[in-house]
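User: Hello! I'm new to structural biology and keep hearing that structure can be predicted from sequence alone. Could you demonstrate with DUF6265 domain-containing protein? Please show me the input and the output so I can see what each looks like.

Assistant: Of course. The first part below is the input, the amino acid sequence of DUF6265 domain-containing protein. The second part is the output, the predicted structure written as tokens.
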Amino acid sequence: MKTTFYYITVLFITLNTAFCQNTMSLTEGQLSPKGSLSDISWIEGHWRGEAFDGITEEIWSPPLGNSMMCVFKLLVNGKVSFYETVIILEEKGTLILKLKHFDKDLKGWETKDETVDFPLVKVDGNRVFFDGLTFERVHKDEINVYVVLSSNGKEEEVTFNYKRYSGHK
């Protein structure tokens, strides 16, 4: 299962934009545009949604020290399937999102010094486009995250719809 999720979440970097209406990618040689954490600070908070026949959860910190951090987990049938640790860094006048995957026992999928990186492509009002991943603010208590996933040679844009979670059911 670890290998399947690894390929689903990592191999989407090669995009087929004809089928990807909410994501963008940098063209060869294109540099990331200007961007700051204030462009995306609205993702701060505790978010829950449903995907992959389970519950997804992301908890984003407010901007501090030129970065925001996030932990993600996927629960399937009430059990953790995998985790991600994510950061968005503001450096050299732009943004970059970096993530690492971990199995349910916190064993890393990437090597010690390896991260999966998503450079900034565009900031456009309520949307922030990273290379292969887009955040969209629907309103203050709802966001969408669009990701292009590749599996068996096919690419598909997947939508994660999150609602702000207050900790109460």
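User: So the tokens describe the shape?

Assistant: Right, they're a compact way of writing down the 3D structure. Reading them back into a model, for example: Residues 4-18 have pLDDT under 50 and may be disordered.
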